[in-house]
Amino acid sequence: MFTCPSIAEKVIRVKIRSSLALAAAVSVLLVGCTSTSNTADVEKGCVTFPTGKQLDSAKIGDNFGKEPKIDIAKGTKVEASQSRVIVEGKGEKVRPNDTAVADISLYNATTGEFAFKAPYNGQGSNSVQINEQLIESISAAVGCHTVGSRVAVLAAPKDLFGAQGNEQLKIGKDDSVLVVADIISNEKAPKARELKGDYKDAPKVEFPGNGEAPKVTLPDTNPPKELTIEVLEKGDGPVIAETDSPKLQTLGLNWNTGATFQKFDSVLDIAANGYVPGFSKAIVGQTKGSKILAILPPADGYGAGGNAQAGIGGKDTIVFVIDIAKD
């Protein structure tokens, strides 16, 4: 049975390479929803499905990077998902915990119509991390395949949207969906840094100016065990209350891997109490125009569950450099 619990919005958002339509319609493929299917063969973090006569008899274009031409018998329904490599790429293999950029289109094999078409503009419609939180049919289409590949998965209902289907995409509860993924690029999962000794010195932060992202140098010691907040520059604006929505930019780094998970390229303006706990504590009570360094242990960040989509483990400490606008 497929279940998809509601996702709390109290997070620093991770960018998804998708149009608003895709984000609204198929974000279920990307965040925190999993299938309990018994048909998937999970080995060493890879999800695979066998081939099958319905998918083998289908004609799927091999024009990688362009909208696929699909010819599959209308009314097709399967109870067990099937997969097939249409084009074998020559790039590196997408491994578990890697983040791949892919164009992913959904074709309703039962009704014979596209449910969603990727833009095929060379940039990819989705950025997906291969982990246990990714729906198996999507993982099977992207994970453990090589960059440059086009992979098709004929997904049984239980391995995609489940018994409820997807009304917005006009996918019924009994419909089987053909997932076609063109894997454009891959980013390797960051390795854990070698950390020694107790926390002593805070990360060094430099602001180049002109709106450029701050430069952060993380020490090679273990992170602090408690929430640590440092005012780097105190602004002269009004004090921020919990329900205020100050405009701010932030750079987010994973202390344990050194990887950047939140880029300093967009302005956030949600309520100050609407972020992860440690982030909210770092800005509430500060003055507008301030620059803040916040180091969040797991309990003040994403908790024991981490945030797999951002590459944050349940034991990872995260660091934010926060630049609060004056206005």
From TrEMBL:
Please name the source species.
Mycetocola lacteus
EC number(s) from the headed UniProt entry: 5.2.1.8
What is this protein's name?
A: peptidylprolyl isomerase
Q: What class of enzyme is it?
A: isomerase
Q: Which residues form the PPIase FKBP-type domain?
A: 243-327
Q: Where is this region: Disordered?
A: 201-223
Pfam families hit by this protein? FKBP_C
Please give the catalytic activity noted in the UniProt record.
[protein]-peptidylproline (omega=180) = [protein]-peptidylproline (omega=0)
* UniProt keyword annotations, A-Z: Isomerase, Rotamase, Signal
The cross-references to SUPFAM superfamilies, in alphabetical order and at most eight, read:
FKBP-like (SSF54534)
From the UniProt annotation, give the residues forming the signal peptide.
1-40
Task: Write out the GO MF terms.
Answer: peptidyl-prolyl cis-trans isomerase activity
